[in-house]
Amino acid sequence: MLRALYAGAATIATPGLRLMLAGRARRGKEVAARLPERRGIDGTARPPGRLLWLHAASVGETVSVLPVLAALAQSSPEVTVLMTTGTVTSATLLARRLPELGLQARVLHRFVPLDVPAWTARFLDHWRPDAAAFVESEIWPNLLTGCRRRGIPTMLVNARLSARSFARWRRLPRLAQALFGSFDRLQAQSDGDAERLRALGAPPSLLTGNLKFAADPLPADAAELAQLRRLVAGRPVWLAASTHPGEEAALLEAHSMLARRHQRLLTIVVPRHPERGRDIAARAGSLAVARRSAGEGPPAGEGLWIADTLGELGLFYRLVGHAFVGRSLGEHGGQNPLEPARLGCAVAVGPNVENFRDPVAILEAAGALARVADVASLVDWVDRMLQDPARRASMGEAGMAASRRYADLPARVAAAVAELLPAGAGS
C-alpha cells in the first residue's frame, strides 16, 4: 500500500532528484564520488555473516549511537554494522571517530539512499541486512516498507516525537499506523515520546532514556588545548557554539555590549556548519576577525574568532568553560546542551529548545543551565560567568553530575538491537 502511495510521485521526481544531488555535490553538501550510494548503487560486496543496518540522520544522531556501536562490538563481535547517514559532516565524523574507537573493521559507512522506491529496493537487495535500526525520528516510508516486505525486523532507537509532530501525524492516522506500526521494537527518549509514539501505532517502549545523556565526552587534542590555553590566558573569553543563520547578528551585538565591560574580549563562534565561516566573517564589519579554518589564531585584541572547523567543539568547550548553545534564538528547536555539560561547562540556551526539552529541563533543575530570552539577557549571563568563576565552576560540576544519567543505556540498547538479529542469519 505504501509503495503504491509513493511510487508515482517518486518516478516523476527521479530526474529532478538526480539534478538536485548534483547541485548539492557542487555546493559541498554531497561527496561527488559517492553520489551513486544516494541512488542505492554500491559495488562493495556485502560482508559475510550477520549484518545489522543502523541509520542516523546527521552528526548529533551519529554521536549519540557511537557508545551503542562500541557496546555491540563487545557483546556481539561476530556482527558487522552497516552505518548509513545523510550528511557529509556525519561521514567525516565517522571517518575520524571509528578508528579512534577501534571500530573501523566492524562498522562500514555508506550514505543512505534517497527514499525513492527503486533506489531503496536496490539498496536493500544489495546489502540484505538481517535487522535494521533507525535513530530518533528517521521515518522513511519506502525504506520501512522495503524492510517489511523482506521480513527484516526493525527498531526505532532513541525515538523522539514532539507534541507538534504528533499533532501533524494524528491528521494521517492510516499512514501513521502503517509506518510506526511497522517497527518491531522501540526505545524512546522519554515517557512522553513513548506515549505519543504508542498512540500512533508504535509498539510499547521496552527501554526509556536519552542516549545523548550517555554519549562519550567530545574528544579534544591535549597538545592543541594546552596551546590554546596559552594563547588566551588572562583575557575574557566566551563561546557561542553550534550557531545557525540569523543568530550571529545577535551574537555580534552581544559582543559589542560585553566589550564595553571587558577589555580585550574574545568571542569564539563555532558555527554548526563550518562552511558558513566566510559569510560570518563578512558580516562582522570593522570588528577584528580571524578564522581557524584559514590557519588564523585568535585576534590579539578585542575581536571575533570563528572556529569554522569540524569536530573541534570538545576542544573549545574545554578551553572556555561556559557556552551559549545555538539554534535556540530562532525557531529551530535548539542543539544538544549535554555536550558542553558533560565537559563541565556552564550552559545557556535561547528560548526555543523544543528538540531538547527534556535535557534542558534536567540541566536547568540541576542548576547547570540558564535560559536567555534575548541579547540583553545573554549579555548579563556572559558577564556573570566572566565575573564569577566560582559560580561558573559550580554550574559546570552540576552539569557533569546530571549528564551521567543513563550511563548503562548504550549497553542495554545494544542488547535490544542484537536480539533483533535472527539466529544463524547472514550470507
Task: Summarize this structure as a short list of keywords or feature phrases.
seven-stranded parallel sheet; Rossmann fold; 427 residues; single chain; Glycos_transf_N_sf; Glycos_transf_N; Kdotransferase; Kdo transferase activity; alpha/beta; 15% strand; 2 domains; 17 helices
The end-to-end span amounts to 29 Å
Give a count of the beta strands, DSSP E runs of length 2 or more: 14
How are the strands of the largest sheet arranged? 3-2-1-4-5-6-7
- In the residues, how many domains can be counted? 2
The CATH homologous superfamily of the largest domain is termed 3-Deoxy-D-manno-octulosonic-acid transferase, N-terminal domain
Poorly predicted sequence stretches spanning 5 or more consecutive residues: 1-12
Count of alpha and pi helical runs: 17
Helix content: 40-55%
Mean pLDDT: 93
Query: What fold name stands as the CATH topology of the largest domain?
Result: Rossmann fold
What is the CATH architecture descriptor of the largest domain? 3-Layer(aba) Sandwich
Function: Involved in lipopolysaccharide (LPS) biosynthesis. Catalyzes the transfer of 3-deoxy-D-manno-octulosonate (Kdo) residue(s) from CMP-Kdo to lipid IV(A), the tetraacyldisaccharide-1,4'-bisphosphate precursor of lipid A.
Pathway: Bacterial outer membrane biogenesis; LPS core biosynthesis
InterPro entries: Glycos_transf_N, Glycos_transf_N_sf, Kdotransferase
EC number: 2.4.99.12
